[in-house]
Amino acid sequence: MTNVELVTAAELRLMQGLAQRVTATRPDLVNADATFGELAWTWGKEQGGDGKGRPCRLWFAGGELAAWAWARLPRQVRRNDGSVKDLTDACVTYQVHPDRAELIDEVIDWYDATAPGIDRTVVASAADEFALTRWAAHGYEPDPASLGDMGVWTQLNERDLTELEPAVLPEGFRFRTAAEAGPEAAVQAHLDAWAPSAYTAESYEGVRGTPGYRADLHFLVEAPDGTMAASTIMWLDEANDTVEFEPVGAHPAYRRLGLARAMLLHGMHQARASGATQATVACLGAPGHPKARALYYGLGFRELSRDAPLIKSGGAGCGGAG
To answer: Beta 242-250 vs 302-312: how paired, if at all?
Structure first.
């Protein structure tokens, strides 16, 4: 076991490696925030923000990483509109290899010791019956707020890349890579899609330095007036021939034009050319958040797995800060 106060690129690669090994045998047991691409995106954007000092623990068995846990503690998040968001609870992202399922009790004990006396939330895989039983034994219960119609639990969706329709943009729009558009445009595209957001130029530099980032798989849609109207980053897991979209966003003024659909199709064509045979993308799964799910279902994605949000001592859920 080892404690890590700042997850380095080397530790991130180990965590991504565990995601790859679980994906190869039990993809339904990969927690939504612990996928190859989600780990890269989260780690990268937090290098210039509030990720520094987040407590993390790694567990090894036979020379390989067998489990890890990465906690967020109460903090303030400053966003690009000048507002400050107070996050008062703790949450944890984790992954345990199915062959070492018993380590879940050590993960839970570590989390409880790391965030004592405050509300603690976690999102486990709904398919991981053993882990859900152990979380329950430690006093964690289904989170009613997250499970409501406007809850924030996530589902992961997948589709194969054998048959793809053409990617067609409206007249005057064009696809650009992040390398072509440049850092300033890439950052602004994210801020426009996710405002208000804690994302910064420093966050983007962290993303660019993340293991697995490829500028040729970071796509934007440029409008006729030069605005970057939509953007997405794709994370290619070469061990499993899978590509993950994270994030996917569109400028509010350019929505309902089919840009996101065309961009995702364009990305899937490029992913297939890079050797991928499967694509995944996450979205909010609660009934009150149908738009992204409808987009992905319309592109042939179907649910692969979903979160089971849990809480101990009541309180708010484990949502991100954009």
So the answer is: unpaired
